[in-house]
Amino acid sequence: MGHTYKWILSSKRCVKDMIFKEKKKLSVESLIYSWIIDLDDPDIENLFTENEWREIKNEVRELPKVDEYFARSLSRFRNVQTTADLRKVIETTSYRNKNDPFNRDKHFDSEWAELVMRHL
């Protein structure tokens, strides 16, 4: 991958190159093997200087607020323990009320999540 698309820190070091070079020394359970920088992992933090780590942490964006309708829709699955439980929830509940016409702004995410659950 060309440097154009890589994350270059102000120190001129490339995050991807650092991870690639150092991940072999880390535990295979480390999230870094999935290219996820775990900000709570001291082993990952130690790969970078204090300034680089601060820069990385400052780049992390806040997660968006979860829509209340979407959260309620997902809560249908909270007690699922088995595939039989999952099938029962999918077959007996819906992400929207039967008489509620589909509204993309309101229902899209919930429909997507239900489709994912159906294809597990």
Q: Notable features of this structure?
A:
11679_t:CDS:1, mainly alpha, 45% helix, 120 residues
Describe what you observe in this structure.
The structure is a single chain. With 120 residues, this protein is mainly alpha-helical. The chain folds into 2 domains: 3-59, no CATH class; 68-118. Helix content is 45%, strand content 0%. It has helices at 15-22, 42-45, 50-59, 68-74, 83-92, 104-118. It is elongated. The model has no long low-confidence stretch (mean pLDDT 90). This is 11679_t:CDS:1. It comes from Dentiscutata erythropus.
Write the layout of secondary structure elements.
Layout: H1 15-22, H2 42-45, H3 50-59, H4 68-74, H5 83-92, H6 104-118
Helix pairs in contact: 4-6
Summarize the structure.
This protein is mainly alpha-helical and 120 residues long. 45% of the residues lie in helices and 0% in strands. It contains 6 helices and no strands.
As residue ranges, the low-confidence spans are: none
Determine the number of helices (DSSP H or I, runs of at least 4 residues). 6
Number of domains as seen in the coordinates:
2
N-to-C SSE string, H for helix and E for strand: HHHHHH
**Rg measurement, Å:** 21 Å
Q: Quickly give the structural class.
A: mainly alpha
Strand residue percentage:
under 5%
Helix content bin: 40-55%
Quaternary state of the chains: single chain
Mean pLDDT across every amino acid position: 90
Terminal CA distance reads 33 Å
User: What is the number of strand segments?
Assistant: 0
Largest sheet: none
Shape: elongated
